[in-house]
Amino acid sequence: MLGNFDDDHRFCTACQTYVRYLQSPEHAYCVECGQKVTLFSKDDTKIFLLGTKTGPTRSELLLEAME
Ligand SMILES: [Zn+2]
């Protein structure tokens, strides 16, 4: 086994793709461009939130917090 692909890649908003990243205590950074990376792309996050039963108000708050 070579490990879990998803554990090694996060979404970079600058590269607009999933990239390898460097983990610091506070944040994770894209190895390609140095931008902070997120666990999911915003679209993926919306899908994730819509797929949960947290309700629209809580989902909207979470999305606003990511801006
Ligand atoms: Zn990048």
Write the layout of secondary structure elements.
Blueprint: H1 5-8, E1 9-12, E2 17-23, E3 28-30, E4 37-38, H2 42-50, H3 56-66
Antiparallel strand pairs: 1-2, 1-4, 2-3
The structure holds zinc ion (ZN).
Average pLDDT figure: 77
Q: Give start-end ranges of low-pLDDT stretches.
A: none
How are the strands of the biggest sheet laid out side by side? 3-2-1-4
**What percentage of amino acids are in beta strands?**
15-25%
Structure commentary:
The chain is an alpha+beta fold and 67 residues long. The chain has one domain. It contains 3 helices and 4 strands; from the N terminus they run αββββαα. It has a 4-stranded antiparallel β-sheet with strand order 3-2-1-4. β1 and β2 form a beta hairpin. The protein is elongated, with a radius of gyration of 13 Å. It starts with a helix and ends with a helix. The relative contact order is 0.15. The mean pLDDT is 77. Bound molecules: zinc ion (ZN). Residues 12, 14-15, 19, 30, 32-33, 35 line the site of zinc ion (ZN).
